[in-house]
């Protein structure tokens, strides 16, 4: 089976050449997508004269997912592999990835277990949450659902139709594959220190991560659970407001002007917590039932 590697690259002039050369012996085709870099990424990638390598370019920056999508449309292999353009994912695992696919896996993830301290601390926290969410939603143990190094069959990718443009892409892809009954396999890999400057930005990326997590949680929660939990959360906050207001009165006026507020507050907080928990329990049971149904369909 023909293997095609897709490398999205944005301002990676220090690493891109090394990455391409490292991967050439392991795959049949390499598609580099330069995503409107302002440095020499495109020149360096294009200068590598190897029949396996094709370099494409976006005129403007469209983000990693946009670059991956462009890359996939340019591939011709039956097996597609993703990696980053910063030298973090070693190429030597490719044969093991392909072997797993040949044995029947549909999606193989490179789980960053060895040297995971090279993942920036902030990202590591994010990855842990993403993976816990993926495990909860899919019902399978997923150690690193957010990894950038992954291999899969073209046919599977086409049927996934992952709706995501940002950070949530990797986890959503993992979860969708598992939920649709595809076989997801993880291979432990080493994660090297990145070459070149990190583009992480704690506030911007923290916000993006939060949005990505919300997007996954929102799309994967059952409608009934949402109908119950959302009012629950709202009532909880209204209750908290009453509580804080009473506290403010007590501190600034030395007595309560509205003496029923604390009572209302406690009532609303308890009611809110109960509704939210009922919603979460419904969500958990719905997921479990969905999986049982799915299994019965397979049998
Ligand atoms: N096409 C495209 N690729 C991007 C963009 N941002 C990052 N990338 C690429 O996506 C891959 C992962 O991005 P990184 O910047 O390494 O992100 P990270 O691994 O979370 O963090 P650091 O390695 O610490 O910077 C690399 O190959 C980048 O070149 C972007 O806006 N567009
Ligand atoms: Mg990186």
How would you describe this structure to a colleague?
The protein is an alpha/beta fold. The protein folds into three domains: 1-86, Alpha-Beta Complex (Spore Coat Polysaccharide Biosynthesis Protein SpsA, Chain A); 88-220, no CATH class; 223-298. The chain contains ten helices and seven strands. Strands 3-2-1-4-6-5-7 form a seven-stranded mixed sheet, sandwiched between helices. Helix 2 links the parallel strand 2 (29-35) and strand 3. The longest helix has 38 residues, at 261-298. It is globular. It starts with a strand and ends with a helix. The mean pLDDT is 94. It binds guanosine-5'-triphosphate (GTP) and magnesium ion (MG). Guanosine-5'-triphosphate (GTP) is lined by residues 8-10, 12, 33, 35, 61, 63-64, 67, 84-86, 120, 123, 148, 194, 198-200.
């Amino acid at each position: 089976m023909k293997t095609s590697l897709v490398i999205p690259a944005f301002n990676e002039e220090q690493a891109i050449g090394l990455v391409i050369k490292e991967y050439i012996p392991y795959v049949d085709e390499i598609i580099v997508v330069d995503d409107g870099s302002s440095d020499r990424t495109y020149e360096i990638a294009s200068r590598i004269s190897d029949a396996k390598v094709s370099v494409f370019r976006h005129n403007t920056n469209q983000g990693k997912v946009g670059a991956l999508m462009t890359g996939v449309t340019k591939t011709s292999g039956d097996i597609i592999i993703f990696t980053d353009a910063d030298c973090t994912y070693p190429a030597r695992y490719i044969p093991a990835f392909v072997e797993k696919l040949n044995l029947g896996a549909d999606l193989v993830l490179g789980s960053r277990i060895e040297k995971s301290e090279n993942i920036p601390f902030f990202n590591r926290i994010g990855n842990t949450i993403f993976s816990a969410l993926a495990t909860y939603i899919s019902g399978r143990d997923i150690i690193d659902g957010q990894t950038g190094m992954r291999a899969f069959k073209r046919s599977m990718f086409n049927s996934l139709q992952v709706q995501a443009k940002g950070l949530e892409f990797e986890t959503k892809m993992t979860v969708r594959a598992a939920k649709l009954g595809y076989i997801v396999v993880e291979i432990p890999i080493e994660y090297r220190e990145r070459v070149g400057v990190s583009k992480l930005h704690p506030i911007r990326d923290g916000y993006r991560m939060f949005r990505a997590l919300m997007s996954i949680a929102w799309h994967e929660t059952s409608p009934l659970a949402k109908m119950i939990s959302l009012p629950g959360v709202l009532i909880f906050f209204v209750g908290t407001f009453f509580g804080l207001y009473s506290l403010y009165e007590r501190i600034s006026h030395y007595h309560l002007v509205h003496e029923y507020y604390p009572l209302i507050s406690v009532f609303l907080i308890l009611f809110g917590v109960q509704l939210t928990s009922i919603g979460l329990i419904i969500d958990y049971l719905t997921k479990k039932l969905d999986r049982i149904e799915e299994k019965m369909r397979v049998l």
